[in-house]
């Protein structure tokens, strides 16, 4: 009986030592392209697809831990320039002026283009219009009156969607009238769900792959077809942000998506960028509503009947 108690005590001690050693080893995982920890700053516009890729990446490489931090574009740039962030996903590259910060530190960036995103214009399903002229949107952003648009609603005044459309309109600041900014893409979708007469602006990924809590709101939303001039006929036509129209360049509101790596070394950021650009990562992008840089191929086996 005494021996039995000794065996039990030794088992408990051994188990405790095992878990203690395991915790210690996890805390000291060396960072490589597939192991270690990484804080990844992500543009809110492409938050859902990044979450999907991160989840699959971590399931494949179980010794890798990626913490996703979702921010507006200006906040991400500030984090990079203050060295708070080292790796980010954005819908633009840094400007030459912004790059100077890293040149002074002899940090060579690794930029990986992995998708093409589209900005979607949305309205409440009760709205009768199903098309919109891009010129009307730009009018509102210039502070000019529009007969078609009473209110434009953005996710955030510092977001990449705002900056993208302000650049298209040729202005640098958001007008005081008829343009409203909330905080997130989720808030824009909920606002449009509850308010007819406003035009919302969100990343198309939020509509194709909405989080579970947003699905009922997305069902009450209509995606507008946006005008574009046909290069061959000169005729104005309207296109929705489908993958085919993004691929052919017919949809006018698109931008590229990048992994910007300023780690200055090969690490988990490098491995994630390689993965999202490789076959498996591009398949995830394809399902998200965005356009992958490389369309994954499908092998079709034709069987000969006997």
Please render the helix and strand layout as text:
Elements: H1 2-27, E1 36-43, H2 47-60, E2 64-71, H3 73-81, E3 87-90, H4 96-103, E4 110-124, E5 131-132, H5 134-141, E6 152-154, H6 160-169, E7 179-181, H7 185-194, E8 199-203, H8 205-208, H9 215-218, E9 221-223, E10 225-229, E11 236-239, H10 243-247, E12 254-261, H11 268-277, H12 279-287, E13 291-292
Parallel strand pairs: 1-2, 1-3, 5-10, 6-7, 6-8
Antiparallel strand pairs: 3-12, 4-8, 4-9, 4-12, 4-13, 10-11
Helix content: 25-40%
Tell me, briefly, the overall form: globular
Main sheet, how many strands, which sense, barrel? 10 strands, mixed
N→C terminal distance = 72 Å
- Unreliable spans: 1-26
Number of strands: 13
Descriptive account of the structure:
The chain folds into two domains: 29-116 and 256-292, D-Maltodextrin-Binding Protein, domain 2 (3-Layer(aba) Sandwich); 117-254, 3-Layer(aba) Sandwich (D-Maltodextrin-Binding Protein, domain 2), CATH 3.40.190. The protein contains twelve helices and 13 strands. Helix content is 38%, strand content 23%. The protein starts with a helix and ends in a 14-residue tail after the last strand. α2 links the parallel β1 (36-43) and β2. The longest helix is centred in the N-terminal third of the chain and has 26 residues, at 2-27. Strands 1, 2, 3, 4, 6, 7, 8, 9, 12 and 13 form a ten-stranded mixed beta sheet that branches. A three-stranded mixed beta sheet has the order 5-10-11. With 306 residues, the protein is an alpha/beta fold. It has helices at residues 2-27, 47-60, 73-81, 96-103, 134-141, 160-169, 185-194, 205-208, 215-218, 243-247, 268-277, 279-287, and strands at residues 36-43, 64-71, 87-90, 110-124, 131-132, 152-154, 179-181, 199-203, 221-223, 225-229, 236-239, 254-261, 291-292. Residues 31-276 form the PBP domain. It comes from Flavobacterium arcticum. Residues 1-20 form the signal peptide. Keywords: Signal. This is Phosphate ABC transporter substrate-binding protein.
């Amino acid at each position: 009986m005494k021996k039995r108690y000794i065996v039990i005590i030794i088992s408990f001690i051994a188990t405790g030592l095992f878990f203690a050693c395991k915790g210690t080893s996890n805390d000291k995982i060396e960072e490589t392209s597939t192991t270690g920890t990484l804080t990844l700053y992500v543009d809110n516009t492409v938050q859902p697809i990044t979450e999907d890729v991160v989840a699959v990446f971590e399931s494949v490489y179980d010794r890798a831990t990626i913490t996703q931090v979702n921010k507006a574009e200006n906040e991400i740039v500030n984090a990079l320039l203050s060295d708070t962030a080292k790796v980010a996903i954005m819908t633009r590259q840094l400007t030459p002026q912004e790059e100077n910060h890293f040149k002074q530190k002899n940090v060579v960036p690794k930029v990986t283009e992995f998708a093409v995103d589209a900005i979607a214009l949305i309205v409440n399903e009760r709205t009768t219009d199903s098309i919109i002229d891009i010129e009307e949107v730009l009018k509102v952003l210039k502070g000019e009156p529009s007969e078609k648009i009473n209110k434009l609603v953005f996710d955030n005044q510092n977001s990449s969607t705002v900056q993208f459309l302000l650049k298209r309109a040729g202005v640098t600041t958001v007008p005081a009238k008829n343009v409203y900014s909330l905080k997130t893409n989720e808030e824009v979708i909920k606002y449009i769900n509850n308010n007819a007469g406003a035009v919302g602006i969100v990343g198309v990924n939020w509509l194709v792959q909405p989080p579970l809590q947003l699905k009922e709101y997305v069902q009450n939303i209509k995606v507008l077809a946006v005008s574009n001039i046909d290069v061959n006929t000169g005729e104005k036509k309207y296109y929705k942000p489908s993958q085919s129209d993004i691929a052919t360049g017919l949809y006018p509101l698109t931008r590229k998506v990048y992994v910007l790596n300023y780690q200055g070394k090969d690490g988990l950021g490098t491995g994630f960028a390689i993965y999202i650009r490789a076959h498996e990562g591009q398949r995830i992008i394809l399902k998200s509503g965005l356009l992958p840089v490389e369309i994954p191929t499908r092998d079709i086996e034709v069987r000969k009947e006997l």
